[in-house]
Hints:
The chain is of the alpha/beta class. 25% of the residues lie in helices and 30% in strands. A 7-stranded parallel beta sheet has the order 3-2-1-4-5-6-7, sandwiched between helices. A 6-stranded parallel beta sheet has the order 10-9-8-11-12-13, sandwiched between helices. The chain has a 4-stranded antiparallel beta sheet with strand order 15-14-33-32, with no helix packed on it.
Amino acid sequence: MRVTLVIATISGGGPERVATNMANYWAASGWEVTILTTDFNGQTPCYDLDPRVTHLDLGGLSDSSTDSPVIDLLNDCSESERAVLQPEAIGILKLREAISRSRPEVVVSYLDLTNICTLLATRGLGLPVLVSEQCDPNQNFIGEEWEQLRRRLYAQASYVAVLTEESLDYFSSVPGIRSRIIPNAVTAPVFSNPDEMPRRDRKTLMAMGRLAHEKGFDLLLHAFALVAKKHADWTLEIWGEGPTRAYLESRIQKHGLAERALLPGFTSQPFDALRRADLFVLSSLDEGFPNVLLEAMACGVAVISFDCPSGPRHIVRSGVDGVLVPPGDAQALAEALDRAMGDEAARNRLAANAPDVLKRFSLEKVMGMWEELILDCTRLVNKVILARKASQAIDVVEAPLTLSPDHQSLLSGLLKTWSIGIYVGESPLRLLPAPGIENPVLTQSNVSDVPVSFVADPFMIRADDAWYMFFEAKNAFTRKGEIGMAMSQNGFDWSYCQIVLAEPFHLSYPYVFEYAGDYYMIPETLQANHIRLYRAASFPFEWIHCADLIDGTFADSSVFRFDDRWWMFACSSPFAHDVLRLFFADSLPGPWSEHPHSPLIRDNPRIARPAGRVVVFNDRVIRYAQDCYPRYGTQVRAFEISELTTTSYQERESEGSPVLRPGSDWNGQGMHHIDPQLNPDGKWIACVDGRFSPAVN
Length: 697
């Protein structure tokens, strides 16, 4: 795979470290990696690049000749947009030439203004382009004209990679933008002198970052001044360089901290500094997904952080591995510092849990998410290629022969798609394809009212002597899931009806059930930041939102009733698939409480994410789990719950698990969902889904 990364500079900073780590990881994996810097100007890199990475700075290129696709786009801009772009025009043309020279199969760009220029530079080249937003766009104002350009041009990107749900929400309202959450990764600490133990003659409170207003170091100095006399054996170190150094030096003098607060400057070896810290503090007013917070925790340091609008709250589990305090509140920060600096046992307890970030945000896990996104980016471009070939009546199987071997393998992924089949059996743990029918019974081609790329996550319910199936239908235009519905008289022959539920956010996993004469649905609504309950106003076609059950970002929420109480499994790591939580309530609307043993599962993508309806029969409770190794949606495993109360939980994997495995045809690439239903004759029928991929020669 040939990948070209575009970033302004690699002379220090969080996004620069991210780009360097990604380049080094892919180079070590055998990829051909080029980094293009647009504003480096011959500076020395602050981070080590793998020697196999090609680094090219645009300052070394001569001016490029006029390139009509870019010039045409500039001509299409408003007068105010042209005003901000004209100083960048030569650089954009140089960038276009450099990208073309690097012959990439995919382009990855970092940071807002560079992303806009990259999208202009690649216009008309037919390349997959992925842009990475490393800041929270809700807080990072780039100017009205640049913002207009961002909203217009980001729709041309194959995908926009964002760091948090808050950033995802920002772009979800912009038509045509496809976005996905990928957090920053953290690498295991590497020290210059691993055998050298840090000095402990004084206790060190440490902060690190660019010396700029948004980092809130003036608030940190104020907070430290409030507690410095009480904790005379503590020193504050703020590592970094930037435009507010002189101002911060004046604040140190004003607070009388000349001997207690230090500004050592920038370090390219942050782990060497962080290992000396007894307590780390992040005082930022806004963040994307702060690398330095991850790195401090990776070093086993207790952390205190402002709970700014995004970033730290997705990293720090307050009270477990750190402490979150109200953003911008120097008094609250001082109180948190006072407690932590005065309680070594509490610091040690937080510090012991902090290195969990090495599992939660491991480089391998996060880079797997990037590679999956790159695969999807390439699919989008290949769809255009296939459409053009089809319009020219050329056999699409021959099309990959004009592409590289890597593109051939990616093109084979293009044809992978989810569809729905029917299984039957004597037990919900032993189900096989229904004899006499041809699976799949529903595919994307059956959906007639909107164009969809696949159908998946089916749930069935029997009502009025008929079967009704609800499923995710992925809208090919909006890239968001909607809920489709099909009907059957016998459970085997299905007729598609229509889309019955669509929202501004993505929907999937439509867990439908009946209770007390009403029909309910709990679809996956993670982009809404709630587990939402819907009720049928007119079954099966009209559904209304009637309650928010649990706040937070959860995937595949699976509700069931047992022992006169409601229970719900949910995956709280929807992109890593490795954490399972359990909630319970006395009534369906709630309030819902988390089980004391929850999370039941951590760091195990093989058994955590729910895979369909929880089956309760003959006092037995069976939950199904997606096995997401080595990739998402590989197979389905079953677990029988042997003990379930509000204070206890026990389960064991069922005999014969996994209950669904990939086949050789329509489900040859994986299966990840099952909804078994007990028929009146005592036999079981289930709707399942599978992923299909024909061979591409």
